[in-house]
Specification:
The complex is a heterotrimer of chains A (239), B (240) and C (240). Chain A is mostly helical. Chain A is built from six helices and no strands. In chain A, helix 1 packs antiparallel against helix 6, helix 3 runs antiparallel to helix 4 and helix 3 runs parallel beside helix 5. Helix content of chain B is 80%, strand content 0%. Chain B has 240 residues and is mainly α. The longest helix of chain B has 30 residues.
Chain lengths: 239, 240, 240
């Protein structure tokens, strides 16, 4: 089987490593020193976690969706690289989503007076997390790599499609999740209007987390590809 | 003695659609026949369902005065768990002596196997419901002759079966399959469960259709999309 | 009726079949001879459309795979390693099920005919679970022939059969071949090849190693010729 041998770490990746660290540090500085603090109803100082919360939320979801898209591509044109990408994207997505849930919980404590509540968005986030954890468990239970890739692709697609349905299914309850961007119940606790400084901080945080995420993804894909090569060699040696 | 092969006895002459439906029907009949012979599955599903209802009843200290929505939750939680027994058994029976290969040899599109199995599974679920509902109605003083409730039951069971059959086919080919199936199934099942519980509760309380419609709508969407996904993906799951 | 060109199959990273070119014409009885693990079962499964080839093209009964696989299956009878029977159902119920899968016309008559031929009629209502290995095998062969297929793919059909059953099966196969059925039979047993084959294709280590006609099979040196072909194939494999 023709295989692309793993090259030594590309210079671009090293540059990205450095860039992400710099961007993350800068974003952190902005969050704490550049952005103004929000009104007390929105949590005051605790509100600063909002920037991390939103960034990781969107990127986590984007990671899951790209894993599903890679799954679609794999089913149409089976090539191991799509599978390696899928599993890497899911892992990154799980980490980011977990940070999203955790930061949300930290923010909720002072604002809603509770660590957790069964609000549609929270439930959906949890279910999404569980779904893609199940994805990893599914992969672990299958030995044949080709079947593992195929089933993983299908489950990632199914998972991505049911998440919006889950969200819709509980939207009939009134949400208490603060709405900062987009329509929703303005009387929800914790809502605030974003000042220009806040918006800049948010956008920069998004950028920093995206670059960081892509760097992690690249590393993970290389690791996965290396694993594939090892597996191939092992089986060749066994013949 | 042995007739030479003749075109008059080959399926090639059957129009495609009726061949497809014949296969679906044959699978449903076969699953019911197997169950009739051993009566293993239905008995265990039934006992399990009754036990779960009783456990919920005592653990949550529910009684006849319980709100419909809460008792509807108990009902659907019961079906959700009992359903996995049915799904496991249904796919496991095809593992014995590779009976699944026999199905795969049928001269029709592979999705016929999926629909046959899904219909058989939903039949089992509804049979279990048939026996569980009376117990439920006694415990929670519920009037069963509620067309809305029965509609939700059918839609919910069908959505469950549609996605469950697909995932069971996957889990059958993996290690620790009995544990894996619930893990794979429940996250994807949540929309149906939530909508079914809400709709059931509302129907039992006799609320206006305007309240119930969003949940019912979702149930319908689910009941239509899941079989469509099953149709698309089943082939990928059983192919070698 | 069977044509494979450049057929190859890979499981994970393991190459199980490589560059298989095989042609079997109507009325031919070809034996696929090879040691265990050579890939015979995999090849048969690919030809039966149960498995998808990684490389190459397959055409059976005039239909190309995978586009027209469903149509081809109507003309294919397959017997694998496992009997593909439902153990809880009776012999007759199993055959009724498969008859409806294939759309066999006048199934009762055909089923009766086969049950009589394989001496299973007295126990036709008993669950297959109670059958001996030999009986299950006979029923499995009956199942493979139920729909009068034009192509028969048989994987070790004689295994588990007693002398009398073997004689009946041999006679049946010769008869079918004479009437135009295409038969490909896989076995590791040289004697089966010598008894039945009009042509032998040797499969070893995933490749076709030799091809012999009936005349060459009768010679005394056939077993050692076979051994030599196998050794050559193993050596060839090591250079991969």
């Amino acid at each position: 089987m023709a295989s692309n041998s793993v090259q030594p770490k590309p210079r671009l990746l090293s540059a990205l490593d450095l860039t992400s660290v710099v961007l993350m540090l800068a974003a952190t500085w902005m969050v704490f020193f550049y952005a103004p603090s929000a009104q007390p109803e929105a949590g005051g100082e605790a509100q600063r976690i909002f920037y991390f919360h939103v960034s990781t939320g969107w990127i986590g979801m984007a990671a899951f969706i790209s894993a599903a898209v890679a799954g679609v591509v794999y089913l149409i044109r089976p090539n191991r690289k799509w599978d390696v990408f899928s599993v890497a994207a899911v892992e990154i997505g799980l980490v980011y989503s977990f940070i999203n849930i955790a930061t949300g919980s930290i923010w909720a404590r002072p604002v809603w007076n509770t660590w957790w509540t069964w609000d549609p968005r929270l439930v959906t986030a949890t279910v999404m997390q569980l779904t893609f954890l199940a994805y990893l468990l599914l992969r672990q239970s299958i030995e044949d790599p080709e079947r593992r890739a195929r089933f993983g692709a299908i489950y990632a697609i199914l998972g991505s499609l049911t998440v919006p349905l889950t969200y819709l299914s509980i939207r009939i309850w009134r949400t208490i999740h603060p709405v900062v961007i987009g329509s929703g119940d303005p009387s929800a606790q914790g809502t605030f209007d974003m000042t220009p400084l806040m918006l800049q901080t948010l956008l920069f945080s998004l950028l920093a987390f995206t670059v960081f995420g892509l760097t992690l993804l690249w590393h993970r894909v290389r690791l996965g590809w290396l694993g594939e090569q090892v597996e191939q060699l092992r089986l060749k040696a066994m013949r | 003695m042995i007739e030479p092969y003749g075109a008059h006895s080959l399926a090639a002459n059957m129009p495609r659609a009726s061949a497809y439906l014949a296969v679906v029907g044959a699978i449903v009949r076969k699953d019911l026949a197997v169950e009739w012979r051993s009566r293993q599955l239905l008995a265990s599903m039934l006992v399990f369902a009754l036990l779960v209802i009783l456990i919920f009843n005592f653990a949550l200290e529910l009684d006849a005065a319980t709100r419909s929505e809460l008792s509807a939750g108990v009902l659907w939680a019961t079906f959700a768990f009992a359903g996995t027994l049915g799904l496991n058994r249904s796919m496991a029976m095809e593992n014995d002596s590779r009976a699944l290969d026999g199905l795969l040899l049928a001269p029709v599109d592979r999705s016929a196997i999926y629909f046959g199995k899904a219909l058989a599974n939903v039949s089992f679920m509804l049979l279990v419901a048939l026996f569980t509902l009376p117990v439920y109605s006694i415990l929670y003083n519920v009037d069963l002759f509620n067309a809305g409730l029965l509609l939700v039951l059918v839609l919910g069971a069908w959505g469950y079966s549609a996605i469950g059959t697909l995932l069971a086919a996957m889990a059958m080919q993996a290690r620790s399959r009995e544990v894996l199936l619930p893990v794979l199934l429940f996250p994807l099942l949540l929309p149906v469960l939530i909508a079914a519980v809400r709709a059931s509760g509302f129907f039992l309380e006799g609320l206006a259709l305007a309240y119930i419609w969003p949940s019912l709508n979702l149930l319908i969407v689910y009941a239509v999309t899941m079989p469509a996904l099953g149709y698309m993906f089943f082939d990928f799951i059983v192919e070698e | 009726m069977i044509a494979a060109r450049g057929l190859g199959k890979r499981f994970g990273y393991r190459l199980v079949l490589e560059s298989v070119n095989l042609k079997v014409n109507p009325g031919e009885l070809v034996v696929l001879l090879g040691p265990n693990g050579a890939g015979k079962s995999t090849l048969l499964r690919i030809l039966a459309s149960l498995s998808r080839p990684t490389f190459g093209e397959v055409e059976v009964a005039g239909s190309r795979f995978p586009q027209q696989a469903a149509a081809a299956r109507a003309q294919i009878g397959f017997l694998g390693h496992k009997p593909m029977l439902h153990e809880d159902l009776s012999a007759r119920q199993n055959l009724i099920f498969y008859a409806s899968l294939y759309g066999v016309k006048r199934p009762d008559a055909r089923i009766k005919e086969l049950l009589n031929l394989f001496d299973l009629d007295p126990r036709r209502h008993e669950p297959v679970r109670t059958f001996s290995r030999g009986m299950q095998q006979r029923l499995a062969v009956a199942r493979a022939m139920l729909h009068r297929p034009k192509v028969l793919l048989l994987d070790e059909p004689h295994s588990g059969l007693d002398r009398e059953a073997i004689t009946i099966l041999d006679g049946l196969l010769r008869d079918l071949a004479k009437k135009g059925t295409t038969i490909l039979l896989a076995t590791h047993d040289l004697q089966v090849a010598q008894r039945l084959a009009q042509r032998v294709e040797v499969l070893a280590a995933g490749r076709l190693a030799a091809s012999w006609r009936r005349r060459q099979l009768a010679s005394r040196q056939f077993p050692s010729l076979y051994d030599r072909a196998l050794r050559r194939a193993q050596l060839g494999g090591q250079h991969a």
